[in-house]
Structures are given as structure tokens and as C-alpha cells.
């Protein structure tokens, strides 16, 4: 079972290594990991997609991660309403005759061509992982020369006001 874990950490040397080492010691397979600075100076957000067999083991690891000095907050956001995206750069074999055909394939995915050479095209796509995967599969017959994926990055959606309990009115004034 795949789980999405986020960790807010201090942006210091060795933090990523300590966090991934703890996951590795507990024999979690990290499917993807993305890390980047947050809106707060000196803080980073890590997003892990891990393969977990035992939910109790996941709870134990979450508690251990929270005890790490440079870890501020750890959350399993798998079952929450989230916004999640991935970026992929795909370089495919292409000549001038195939470019219009490829453009027609990538358009519904809102992907874009970001580089053109005599014998290849580089395409950028962002979206949910299944969307990215679907485009990769459609482009595979053309010959993928190179592929780079960021891994999933995600956070919990903002809370929506509840119209029934008058929250909207209190927000408006």
C-alpha cells in the first residue's frame, strides 16, 4: 500500500540523509521523494511516497521522525484531500515529419515542447502521477531517449467554508 508522507524540516546539511536512513532502517521502499524550500526562511518540505505493508510500522516511523532534532512536523496525508503534482521532462526521438503528430498527442495533457533539435523533442508535463504516466506510455513508441521525473510533491487542501453552519457569513463580515 502506497502512502504519502510530508515532513517539514529545518534546511540543514544532513537532514535528508537522516530522514531517509530512518526509513531505510525500517525497510520502507521510497517510491519517490521531493524536497524544496518553503515559504518560511530556513525550512524545507519533503514529500515521500512509500510502500508500506504494515500500518502500525508506519505510525512508529512517523513518531520516530517527529523526534528528530531538525524535523518540525510529519504527516501522513494519504487519506486527506490533497493537491498533488509531479513534473516530468521527456526527450523523445523525433524528426520534422513527426512533430505535428507528437504535438497532437501532448496537447490534451497540457504538456509543452521545451526544446527541439534535429533528431529529438523535449517535452514538459505536470500533473497527477497517473496523467504523467499516461503521457509517457503514449510517447514510448516514438522512442524515449531520456526521462527525468521529480517525484510527487503535495500538501493538504485549504479548508472549504461550510455554508450550513454560517462559516461563510463569518468569513465575509
Give the gist of this structure.
The protein is α+β, with helices and mostly antiparallel strands and 173 residues long.
Describe the protein in words.
By secondary structure, the chain is of the alpha+beta class. About 30% of the residues lie in helices and about 40% in strands. The chain has 2 domains: about 80 residues, ACT domain (Alpha-Beta Plaits); about 70 residues, Alpha-Beta Plaits. A hairpin with a 5-residue loop joins strand 2 and strand 3. It is elongated, with a radius of gyration of 20 Å.
The CATH class of the largest domain, by name, is: Alpha Beta
Number of strands: 9
**Beginning-to-end CA distance, first to last residue:** 45 Å
Overall mean pLDDT stands at 89
Largest sheet: 5 strands, antiparallel
Radius of gyration: 20 Å
- Overall geometry comes to elongated
| Architecture per CATH nomenclature, i.e. the level-2 architecture of the largest domain | 2-Layer Sandwich
Number of domains: 2
Question: Which structural class matches the secondary elements?
Answer: alpha+beta
Q: Tell me the series of helices and strands, N- to C-terminal.
A: EHEEHEEHEEHEEH
Strand content: 35-45%
CATH topology of the largest domain: Alpha-Beta Plaits
Helix content: 25-40%
The helix count comes to 5
Q: Could you state the CATH homologous superfamily of the largest domain?
A: ACT domain
| Uncertain ranges | 165-173
EC number: 2.2.1.6
Catalytic activity: 2 pyruvate + H(+) = (2S)-2-acetolactate + CO2
Keywords: Amino-acid biosynthesis, Branched-chain amino acid biosynthesis, Transferase
InterPro entries: Acetalactate_synth_ssu (IPR004789), Acetolactate_synth/TF_NikR_C (IPR027271), Acetolactate_synth_ssu_C (IPR019455), ACT-like_dom_sf (IPR045865), ACT_dom (IPR002912), AHAS_ACT (IPR039557), AHAS_small-like_ACT (IPR054480)
Amino acid at each position: 500500500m502506497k502512502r504519502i508522507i510530508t515532513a517539514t524540516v529545518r534546511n540543514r546539511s544532513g537532514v535528508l540523509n537522516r530522514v531517509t536512513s530512518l526509513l531505510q532502517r525500517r525497510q520502507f521502499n521510497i517510491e519517490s521523494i521531493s524536497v524544496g524550500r518553503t515559504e518560511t526562511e530556513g525550512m524545507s518540505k519533503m514529500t515521500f511516497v512509500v510502500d508500506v505493508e504494515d500500518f502500525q510500522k508506519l505510525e512508529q516511523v512517523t513518531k520516530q521522525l517527529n523526534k528528530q532534532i531538525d524535523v518540525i512536523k510529519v504527516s501522513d496525508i494519504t487519506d486527506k484531500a490533497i493537491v498533488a503534482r509531479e513534473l516530468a521532462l521527456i526527450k523523445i526521438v523525433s524528426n520534422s515529419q513527426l512533430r505535428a503528430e507528437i504535438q497532437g498527442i501532448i496537447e490534451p495533457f497540457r504538456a509543452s515542447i521545451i526544446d527541439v533539435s534535429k533528431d529529438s523533442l523535449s517535452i514538459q508535463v505536470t500533473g497527477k502521477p497517473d496523467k504523467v504516466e499516461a503521457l509517457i506510455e503514449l510517447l514510448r513508441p516514438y522512442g524515449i531517449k531520456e526521462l527525468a521525473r521529480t517525484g510527487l510533491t503535495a500538501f493538504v487542501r485549504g479548508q472549504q467554508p461550510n455554508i450550513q453552519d454560517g462559516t461563510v457569513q463569518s468569513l465575509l463580515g
